[in-house]
Amino acid sequence: MDQNDLRAIVTVLAFLTFIGIVLWAWSGRRRAAFDEAANLPFAEDETHSPNLSPAGRRGETR
To answer: What is the DSSP letter of 43?
Structure first.
C-alpha cells in the first residue's frame, strides 16, 4: 500500500463522515432541537438590564 492508496482511503472516509453529518442534521428527530436553537438569538435575555447605573458598567467605578 503506497501513499496514494492512503490518501484515497482518507478521502473516502472524510466523504462518508460528511454524508453522515448531513443525514444526521436533516433527520426529522433533530428538527425540534434545531428549530429551538435557531430561535435563540431572538429570545429575550432576562438578565439584561438596559438601565444600568454608571457604577454598574464594566470598567467604571465611582
So the answer is: S
pLDDT band (50, 70, 90) for residue 44:
confident
Q: CB-based contacts of 16: which residues, under 8 Å, 6+ apart?
A: none
Residue with cell 442534521: 25
Q: How far apart are CA 57 and CA 54, in angstroms?
A: 6
Reported pTM: 0.55
DSSP H or E stretch at residue 23? helix 3-25
Question: Which of left, alpha, beta for 59 (phi over 0: left; psi -120 to 50: alpha)?
Answer: left
C-alpha 25/C-alpha 39 separation (Å) is 17
